[in-house]
Design goal:
The protein is an all-beta fold. It has one domain (16-119): Jelly Rolls, CATH 2.60.120.10. It is 0% helix and 61% strand. The chain contains no helices and nine strands. Strands 1, 2, 3, 4, 5, 6, 7, 8 and 9 form a nine-stranded antiparallel sheet that branches. Strand 3 (32-42) and strand 4 form a beta hairpin. The radius of gyration is 14 Å and the shape is globular. The termini are far apart.
Length: 123
């Protein structure tokens, strides 16, 4: 029988490990850490969940996935390639739709919980 996966207290996790960059850095590469806790094959792709943290800096994003996020701490500003500016702060949730392009500027260190749906044809 398949059981549920639980990541206890993601806001206070201390075992996050350095990971690949979520996007291309603009300037210095900000430190990014992650603690994944669930992976699964979908009918047409993969699902990944976990907690991710990033120090201040700016990343260029060109997303080939869909991602749901909930911000546990920090302040983030997104500017789409069409110029739409969106800001999120601790307590906010949002979805990065597949195909979203723009910049993600970490104003104050962010920590989010996420669920990424990566289609088989990504990359």
């Amino acid at each position: 029988m398949t059981e549920i996966s639980i990541q206890k207290t993601p806001a206070t996790l201390t075992d996050l490990e350095e990971c690949e960059s979520f996007g291309e850095p603009v300037g210095a590469l900000p430190l990014q850490t992650n603690a994944g806790f669930f992976e699964s094959e979908l009918a047409k792709g993969q699902l990944y969940t976990g907690t991710w943290e990033c120090e201040p800096g700016t990343l260029e994003l060109d997303l080939e996935l869909t991602e749901f996020c909930y911000l546990l701490e920090g302040h983030w500003r997104f500017t789409s390639e069409t110029g739409v500016v969106s800001e999120v702060r601790a307590g906010d949730s949002w979805v990065f739709p597949r195909g979203w392009k723009g910049t993600a500027e970490v104003i104050e260190k962010v920590r989010k919980v996420y669920a990424m749906m990566v289609p088989d044809d990504a990359g």
